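User: Okay, second chain of the day. Same drill as before: sequence in, structure tokens out.
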Amino acid sequence: MVIDNVFEDIRAGLEIHSPKLAQRRIAMAKYLGELYNYKLVESTNILNTLYSIISLGVSTEEGVISPLDPPDSLFRLKLACVLLDTCGPYFTSSTSKQKLDYFLIFFQHYYWYKKSNPIFSRVQDTHDLFPILVDHMYRDCLANVRPKLKLFKNLEQAKEAIEKLREKLYPQLKELTAQQQQQQDADEANNLQPIPEDSEFDDGASDDSSSEMDRRPRDECQDDEEAANQANTTDWTENEGMPEDDVVPNIPKISEKTKEDLEFEQMFEKMAQDSYQERLKETIKPNTKDIPVPMMVRNNKKSYEQISSASNAAPAPSSSAAVSNDSKNPASGPINFVLM
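Assistant: Same drill. Structure tokens below.
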């Protein structure tokens, strides 16, 4: 979820060119590089983001100004440099190294495309030369990622390197483009200009057809109109007597039930009724659950000697109390004690 939000935020920053989001975009690029360092994203995700930075909304055609990447905006160079400085040195596998080398060719082309813009030239006398801080950031970034990389000196060298890379990776692409160019030239040669006589002939044919329509007798037109009106009235009267449900087309008809189906339904209903009656006759037994009685352990148990000593230490009862007790309990005997 967090990784998806990071990619979406970087993409939204590329689609919205606003200086207010500059600090946030730099922080997101730095954060994405740290995610790769901690092995939370793949190298393909980083490369896709880098290619998006230098290509999304970028116009390399002369005279075409993109609102997402104006000629005087160098923020995307900073964004790519921050991401490369953060995670570029950690592309250690052979495939990731090779893919990063391919990207650096396109990155240098983007750099020289920006730097060679007339807005940063002395000829235009704009007094807005290419910032030296951005130049140093670009060179330090490439020196950090590839210390032995030979940098291009102008835009033409970058274009030549891109063409060589395309021929290396896609050798059949050049042949296809040549064939397409030949086919396009042949199509243009075959597409001849329309002859004026054809247009005149078409105009004459249309005039003849219109004149023939005018020559038709009025009686035939009236007969056609009456036949059309009669057909409409018959259709309307037929549809008027029919209910609205019958007008709906393509309604599948319900197939009639056979004798076997009716017998099966009767037997099934009888079986269900018998089962229901048997269930009503059954007595519902309540669920008796065994409730365990907790065992109370008493720590104040007394031995027989303690009980006998307590009875001997008690004072002797008075004579009246003894007489009353004797009268109540005429058969006095030994008292049985139960040890709890």
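Confidence is low (pLDDT under 50) at residues 199-203, 236-246, 318-328.

User: Thanks, on to the next one.
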